[in-house]
From TrEMBL:
The keyword Acetylation does not apply. Its main location: membrane. Part of the ABC transporter complex MalEFGK involved in maltose/maltodextrin import. Probably responsible for the translocation of the substrate across the membrane. This is Maltose/maltodextrin transport system permease protein. It is found in: Cell membrane. Residues 200-419 form the ABC transmembrane type-1 domain. InterPro entries: MetI-like, MetI-like_sf. It comes from Ornithinibacillus xuwenensis.
Length: 432
């Protein structure tokens, strides 16, 4: 028993434990104990400055984050929510410095136990330059990224769990945390449920059909132009890429005029010859057909240019070997061309699907997601992102818009991650 107590006492009195304990109690004391006086004083000053300058802000911020205010008209829930999120970010940086202080003190104490001499100031500066200087230089960019990207994302995530809508908005009313009630309403309340599933299914159809058509068309045209029997390849490629050169919003507005059922050239000059008049903008089905057609036109030039470059890199001896073995055109396309093209372009093609899933421009510029549908608070051609826009800027249903945005983000991230994991390019990325 006496030996155990002696060993325990000896263990507690080891420099590494003393330095760790001192750093836990007061940042910088562990470094001073290890005779790293300059570093210890700097860490101590940083800790004192952090507490003095941020204590009141953090105190109000954390309180506001949990309560969202207690006095209507005086407390603004949105301001308190933002201050609370900023407080969490600032607190995270403070905790990171605090943990660094503890680990650094323990590391220096271990070196002291092993008899290693503390580096001089010059040696410490050189070590910092060689090992930590790159990290030090990216800190400003990291801080900017946190406040420009991470903070808005956290704010959006937070709104999805509040009751912030047009009938309950600060400072007239205080917000409350409602948990997952918004997601439950989205799946159970009739008007939200019907609209959500209608818009969600159309978003999936839009993404799959429009993107697949532009990929198939781009691949088909690239195969034709890459054929040895085709002449004037440069001219043909230039003409086929022209739709890509015109700004997309200009093309969409032009198509919106062309598809206009009253004065549009498609009905008036083309279909009228066959005594056909299609309600492109007033009928949801035909509006969706028009949107898919326009997106195919806008998207195929990029895919065409992408596939054209990849096809030129396929080794000719592979086709020659297939000819010797008696391979048909279909077999060469299936076993040589297609695998080679998909291997090189799969990540970019996946991004085409993800991009069209959130393709707000074409939906809004063509007909603003219309026509209206009875019993729904979204238009007949609205996809999730355009519906979120309307909920945010037209009906002020911020909580439901945030909830839908979270669902969209999960879908896109899950789909992209799953597809990337299945591509050979992703699997071999870490091998080199």
């Amino acid at each position: 028993m006496a030996n155990d107590q002696k060993e325990r006492k000896t263990g507690l009195s080891r420099p590494r434990n003393i330095a760790t304990l001192l750093s836990v109690m007061v940042p910088g004391l562990g470094q001073i104990y290890n005779r790293r006086f300059l570093k210890g004083i700097i860490l101590l000053l940083v800790a004192i400055s952090f507490l003095v300058t941020t204590w009141d802000y953090l105190d109000i911020g954390i309180w506001g984050l949990f309560t969202l205010g207690t006095i209507p008209h005086e407390h603004h829930s949105i301001q308190l929510l933002l201050q609370g999120l900023i407080s969490l970010i600032v607190l995270f940086f403070g905790i990171a410095i605090y943990i660094y202080n503890i680990r650094d003190a323990r590391k220096d104490a271990i070196a002291r136990e092993e008899g290693r001499i503390n580096p001089t100031l010059l040696k410490g500066m050189l070590d910092f330059y060689n090992g930590g200087f790159p990290y030090f230089m990216i800190i400003p960019g990291l801080i900017m990224l946190v406040f420009i990207v991470v903070l808005p994302l956290l704010f959006m995530l937070s709104l999805a769990f509040t009751d912030y809508n047009q009938y309950n908005a600060p400072p007239r009313n205080l917000l409350s945390w409602v948990g997952i009630d918004n997601f439950v309403d989205l799946l159970k309340m009739d008007i939200w449920k019907d609209t959500f599933f209608s818009v969600f299914t159309w978003t999936i159809v839009w993404t799959v059909v429009a993107t697949t058509l532009q990929i198939v068309l781009g691949f088909f045209l690239a195969l034709l132009v890459n054929d040895k029997r085709v002449k004037f390849k440069r001219t043909i490629r230039t003409v086929l890429i022209l739709p890509w050169a015109v700004p997309a919003f200009v093309s969409i507005l032009i198509f919106s005029a062309l598809f206009n059922p009253t004065f549009g050239a498609i009905n008036r000059d083309i279909l009228s010859q066959f005594e056909i008049m299609i309600p492109w903008l007033s009928d949801p089905f035909w509006a969706k057909v028009a949107l898919i057609t326009i997106q195919t036109w806008l998207g195929f030039p990029f895919v065409f240019a992408l596939f054209t470059g990849v096809l030129q890199s396929v080794p000719a001896d592979m086709y020659e070997a297939a000819d010797v073995d008696g391979g048909s055109r279909w077999q060469k396309l299936r076993h040589i061309t297609l695998p080679h093209v998909l291997y090189a372009t799969a990540p970019l093609l996946i991004m085409q699907y993800a991009g069209n899933f959130n393709n707000f421009n074409i939906i809004y510029l063509f007909n603003e997601g219309n026509p209206a549908v009875r019993g729904q608070n979204a238009g007949g051609t609205d996809i999730l992102i355009s519906w979120v826009y309307k909920l945010t800027f037209e009906t002020n249903n911020y909580n439901m818009a945030a909830a839908i945005t979270i669902i969209m983000g999960i879908i896109v991230m899950g789909f992209a991650f799953f597809q990337f994991r299945k591509t050979a390019a992703f699997k071999e990325e870490g091998r080199y």
